[in-house]
Amino acid sequence: RKATDVFLDVVGTVLDHPAAPVAAWLGGTEGTAGWAEARICVASLPRDRVVLRPTAPDALAALAGAAILLAPAREDPFPLAVLEAASLDVSVLAFDGGGAAEALRC
User: Fold this and answer.
1) H runs (alpha helix) in the chain
2) Alpha carbons 25 and 52: distance in angstroms, whole number
3) Residue 51's closest CA among 13, 84, 15, 19?
4) 6-20 confidence digits (pLDDT tens)
5) Is the Cβ–Cβ distance between 100 and 77 less than 8 Å?
């Protein structure tokens, strides 16, 4: 539902640029992490620049240090991460549909 596949596709494209930052996925389940790890290996993404972290109480602090939030979910009726990023003045990249687009138009 959160579109880990889209995240990894975008990361794979962006990491081709020499100045690309580290990409981090925060949250998810063990199943999501296992699938993402396999996809990272298949796509030969650099493990030192793609980080998968479980849900943690310090997620807001990690978000505060981000240059941008990629919200890859195609439909998310209440994207809390988008609202939190906006409150921290972190730029957000999201699909033009669902709750993220509505939240960003305000």
Assistant:
1) 4-14, 30-42, 59-64, 80-87, 98-105
2) 5
3) 15
4) 888 888 888 878 777
5) no
**Token couple for 99:** 């709750």
Tokens of 46: 């650099």
Contact assessment for residue 44 and residue 12, using Cβ atoms and an 8 Å cutoff: no
Structure tokens at 72: 């890859």
**Do 103 and 79 contact (CB within 8 A), yes or no?**
yes
Q: How far is CA 17 from the centre of its chain?
A: 18
Element (H, E) at 37: helix 30-42
pTM here is 0.77
C-alpha span between 42 and 23 (Å, rounded): 17
103, 86 contact by CB (below 8 A): yes
C-beta separation of 54 from 33 below 8 A: yes
